[in-house]
């Protein structure tokens, strides 16, 4: 063998000894020299290429024994290449010199490398959480009793690791990964999702002439605006716990009770009202005394106080909170306050009612023993904003309107 051929063969031997798993297709060289194929046999993977080069001065061919490939006549320094796309053993020879033989053994390409992703889920969802590694493929695993997991057979590429379990949230919600080797420490913490708060209902019935078509408002932590059915029933559903005010309204009618306050912690029924034609409200209170004091300082620091004595018209029913009569006090267009009958607390003496909260105080006295009856009001409100709609002059006279049940009175504070 010539020195040139020996050098060429020596160069080829490392390529022949490469491991089968290669990232890309390879090209293997075979020399035609000294009337021989060198090396006479090669081993490659599917997708690899063999390149023959004729170094002899004589012409040769590379001809498959099974007609799988053929070079035709190769003159000196000409080459022939063939890419093998299927596994098997392919013997070949020179068409001019049958004693020149060789073979190519082609093995299936090894599968691409795969990796593992592992970590731990902590918290109440530690056992039994599904871990999904999502990308070009999806691989899954379920955490063990101690919260650990290992996802196997993950190919190289970009993936997102996502934990999931009903009733729980996870931090982080997912973790992106560019995977080229096995990774560890992809951890998540879990938190139980609190169950939704229980929901309840309020139902009842309006009877009397306004049974059908009456508006019923239910206000509190949630609000429902309802209309009674033809049989007078109403239902407010899906209400969270809390305090609610149920108020029926319809023009031309009054209701007993005027409203209901309900502390809702379970569904309640039979929250009923009786309707009746409303008495006409007119100027049926004679003002015997009216004193108004207005103080404006800063927003939410204003105050107002009213003292008044009224004589109701004896031809109209005497107001009675027990029958649902509410009290409304209006001063010009900058103050209005309505106290429902349910807001008024009976005092120690008959005909006496009070109301008090953080900003408002009322003392209401009704003397039915006096001729025609007398109603006195002592009302004050502090830490309020009387100037929300514009400046208010405390020294100017102001129009005062009081409505109590079927009675109404209007007067000027300066009259």
Describe what this molecule looks like in 3D.
This protein has 415 residues and is mainly β. The chain has four domains: 105 residues, Cupredoxins -  blue copper proteins (Immunoglobulin-like, Sandwich); 79 residues, Immunoglobulin-like (Sandwich); 79 residues, Immunoglobulins (Immunoglobulin-like, Sandwich), CATH 2.60.40.10; 128 residues, no CATH class. Helix content is 3%, strand content 50%. It is built from one helix and 34 strands. The strands form eight sheets. The chain has a six-stranded antiparallel beta sheet with strand order 25-26-32-31-30-29, with no helix packed on it. The protein has a four-stranded mixed beta sheet with strand order 2-1-4-6. A hairpin with a 7-residue loop joins strand 7 and strand 8. 25% of the residues are buried.
């Amino acid at each position: 063998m010539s020195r040139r051929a020996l050098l060429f063969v020596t160069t080829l031997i490392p390529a022949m000894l490469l491991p089968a798993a290669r990232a890309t297709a390879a090209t293997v060289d075979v020399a035609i020299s000294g009337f021989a194929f060198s090396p006479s046999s090669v081993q490659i993977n599917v997708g690899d290429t063999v390149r023959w080069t004729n170094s002899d001065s004589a012409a040769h061919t590379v001809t498959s024994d099974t007609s799988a490939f053929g070079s035709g006549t190769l003159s000196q320094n000409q080459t022939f290449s063939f890419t093998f796309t299927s596994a098997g053993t392919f013997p070949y020879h020179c068409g001019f010199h049958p004693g020149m033989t060789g073979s190519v053994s082609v093995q299936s390409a090894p599968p691409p490398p795969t990796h593992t992703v592992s970590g731990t889920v902590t918290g109440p969802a530690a056992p039994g959480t599904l871990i999904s590694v999502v990308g070009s493929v999806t691989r899954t695993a379920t955490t063990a009793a101690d919260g650990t997991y290992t996802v196997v057979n993950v190919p190289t590429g970009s993936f997102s690791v996502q934990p999931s379990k009903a009733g729980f949230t996870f931090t982080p919600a997912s973790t992106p990964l560019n995977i080229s080797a096995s990774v560890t420490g992809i951890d998540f913490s879990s938190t139980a999702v609190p169950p939704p708060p229980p929901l309840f209902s309020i139902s009842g019935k309006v009877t009397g002439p306004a049974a059908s078509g009456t508006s019923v408002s239910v206000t509190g932590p949630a609000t429902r605006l309802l209309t009674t059915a033809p049989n007078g029933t109403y239902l407010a559903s899906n209400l969270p716990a809390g305090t609610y005010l149920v108020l029926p309204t319809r023009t031309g009618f009054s209701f007993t009770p005027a409203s209901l306050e309900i502390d809702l912690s379970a569904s309640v029924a039979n929250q009923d009202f009786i309707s009746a034609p409303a008495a006409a409200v007119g100027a049926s209170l004679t003002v015997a005394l009216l004193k108004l004091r207005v103080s404006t300082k800063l927003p939410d620091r204003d105050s107002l106080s009213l003292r008044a004595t009224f004589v109701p018209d004896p031809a109209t029913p005497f107001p009675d909170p027990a029958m649902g009569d509410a009290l409304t006090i209006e001063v010009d267009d900058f103050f209005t306050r309505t106290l429902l009958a349910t807001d008024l607390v009976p005092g120690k003496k008959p005909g006496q009612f009070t109301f008090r909260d953080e900003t408002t105080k009322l003392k209401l006295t009704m003397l039915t023993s006096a001729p025609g009856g007398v109603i006195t009001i002592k009302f004050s409100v502090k830490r309020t904003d009387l100037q929300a709609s514009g400046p208010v002059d405390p020294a100017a006279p102001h129009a005062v309107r009081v409505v109590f049940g079927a009675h109404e009175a209007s007067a000027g504070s300066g009259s």
